[in-house]
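Appendix B. One record, verbatim.
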Amino acid sequence: SQVSEEFGIIFDNTAVKDERSNAGLPTMPIITDIIAHPVTEDVDDLLVPSACSLRIEGKAKALAVTSEMAEPTKVPVIAVVEVGKGRIMCVGSYEVFRRGGGFKHKGNKILATNAFRWLSGNSQMTKPSSVVKAQEKKARAKADSGEKISAEFEKTLKRLVNAVFDLQKDISKVKKQVGSVESNIELLRDQFQDFAEKTQQQLGVMIPSKQFKTSEEHKTADIEADIKGLMSEIKSVDQLKDHVEQRHSSGAMPKETYSEQVEKLDARLMSLEKKLAKKQQELAELT
């Protein structure tokens, strides 16, 4: 490392791991982020067992970089530098070219051939390799797809927020209808209670005088159910707001869309909290 550091390549005291892309163990990562260079010509991926990461400075260039899921993330494991007529290549693992290690991997064999040709000065890539072309095409397709998915996601999120408010309007209508039904039930309860008491007095027949909850008990249960529903709804809106915040923080949501959604959600939260406070006050007065 002391020698390579003079040329802008530093070996870090790390252990590269990749839980997702590996050859059976996290410490045997498969590197697919390959940079175009004569050394990596026609190299699709590399097996880099027991590797450490590299840091590069000055004219040094990274040739192979760990994935976003790896640890450490997006760091070089292979780098090169040209100094005058000299050429230097550094690899974060001595296992790459070992016969019982990484050399069993097809990409490693191609890399070895390219590396020795380049280091000896007998290699110069005159045109992009088929692998590099495929990688560039894949990257462009991924970027286009990402933009399309992001736009669709924003539309879906807007529809979801609007659906929440539409649902609340429908719930309010249903509550009014249910309230009317409950009033009729309460009237029937009072009539039955009156009938039971008169029958007991006139005929001496024992009919339970309390077939339903009292008006106060019924109202208390209703208010408690309303409070539970409001708290659940507040939690749902809070979760939706957190998701919008995360999307904005990650840069995936435009500021204009973010401001519009947050304004709607804040207004909804304020309305729900007022209703909750009112119901809690009603419950306190009953108890």
